[in-house]
Structure formats: structure tokens, C-alpha cells
Design a protein that fits this description.
The protein has 197 residues and is mostly helical. The protein folds into two domains: 49 residues, Homeodomain-like (Arc Repressor Mutant, subunit A), CATH 1.10.10; 132 residues. The protein is 74% helix and 0% strand. Helix 2 packs across helix 3. The protein is globular. GO terms for molecular function: DNA-binding transcription factor activity; transcription cis-regulatory region binding. Keywords: DNA-binding, Transcription, Transcription regulation. It comes from Kribbella albertanoniae.
Length: 197
């Protein structure tokens, strides 16, 4: 059965994501994607152009996944306090699947994200929670705190263990991101004056 162009693009991105999760960035090649879905290299190139174009599309695909997961997580916060730990797990899960390595590589190659503001709902809910807690502070501080958290999570999957080792954390403990992520959650709550869970 012949795929529509949209079905082909979706199949290509899903195959590229599977390869990224299984083998890291080096595993995502036009040839490997084509082979995985029974398409020719030229067929993949027809939909995405070069490998670089495919990787940019894959990063955007991952960004949409993070946005969807964040929106779903935040939707449950409306009548209760923000679940910072859950938010961290949600974002980290996608980056841990190879998207962190992909984002770092594309940025190192000169690609710039135009910025989508997909964490804006998080900023707004955290800022509202701050105001209800009696420590409103400037909205700019809330934005910077969320940006710092996002930066830490994006880099942790690729560099976190090395950064922890550089601070004297033992080899075995450095490989476990959980304590670092808990620290980030506590730091964010403290910096913004949010109630503890």
C-alpha cells in the first residue's frame, strides 16, 4: 500500500527516532532510516533533503513530544500545586532518549532554534503559584529559573555524569541523574518560594 506524503514523513521521523534511541546520533543516517521503513535513500531525501535537514526535523519532532508531555503534565496542575518533580521527569525522559545529544550536535553545527516558548505554560503556572504563596517576585525571575532548569535537563543526558565527576561525585553515583534532578527540583522551589510537596 502506497503511503501519502504525510504518512511517509511520519514513518521517516518515527524510524529516525527509533534509531536515535537505539544507537545514538551516529545511528541516524538517511540510509539506515530508508532501510528501516523499506524506502530508498532518494525517497527519504525527497521528503527531508540532507541528513542535516532530517536531524533538524527530528529535533522539532522531539520538541513537539516535549511540548505535548509538558502540556499534559501542566493540565493536571490547575487546582493543585505544581508538580516540579513530575515536570523534571517528563522533560528528562525525552532528552534521555537521545534528543539531548541531537540538540547539542545541531547547535554545535550552527543550527539555531527560533524559540517556541513551549515552557510558557510552566512559567505562568509557577508564577501564579508564587503569587498565591505570598512571594510573587518578578515574572522575569520565574522565566530565568525555568530556563535554567531546562538548560540543566537538556545538558544532563549528554554531560551530566562528567560534570558530577568534576565536582568529586563518585563514578557510580555520577551515572545516576536522580539525585541531581531532585536537587534541581528543590532549588527551583527554594528560588521561587514555592511550597514543598
Amino acid at each position: 500500500m502506497r503511503r501519502t506524503p504525510e504518512e511517509s514523513r511520519r514513518a521517516i521521523l518515527q524510524a529516525a527516532e527509533e534509531l536515535l534511541v537505539e544507537g545514538g546520533l551516529d545511528a541516524v543516517t538517511v540510509r539506515a532510516v530508508a532501510k528501516r521503513i523499506g524506502m530508498t535513500d532518494a525517497g527519504v531525501a525527497h521528503h527531508f533533503g540532507s541528513r542535516q535537514d532530517l536531524l533538524v526535523a527530528l529535533l522539532r519532532y522531539g520538541g513537539r513530544r516535549i511540548r505535548g508531555a509538558v502540556e499534559e503534565a501542566v493540565a493536571g496542575w490547575a487546582d493543585r500545586q505544581a508538580d516540579i518533580d513530575g515536570l523534571i521527569r517528563t522533560i528528562a525522559r525525552v532528552y534521555d532518549q537521545g534528543y539531548a545529544e541531537l540538540a547539542v550536535a545541531l547547535h554545535a553545527a550552527g543550527w539555531e532554534d527560533p524559540g517556541t516558548g513551549f515552557l510558557e505554560p510552566v512559567v505562568q503556572i509557577l508564577h501564579t503559584t508564587r503569587a498565591r504563596s505570598g512571594r510573587p517576585g518578578p515574572l522575569a525571575d520565574t522565566r530565568l529559573a525555568v530556563a535554567a532548569l531546562h538548560q540543566a535537563l537538556a545538558l544532563d543526558a549528554t554531560y551530566g555524569a562528567a560534570f558530577r565527576r568534576s565536582a568529586g561525585v563518585s563514578e557510580s553515583a555520577a551515572l545516576r541523574p536522580g539525585p541531581q534532578r531532585a536537587w534541581w527540583a528543590n532549588t527551583l522551589r527554594t528560588a521561587l518560594g514555592l511550597p514543598s510537596d
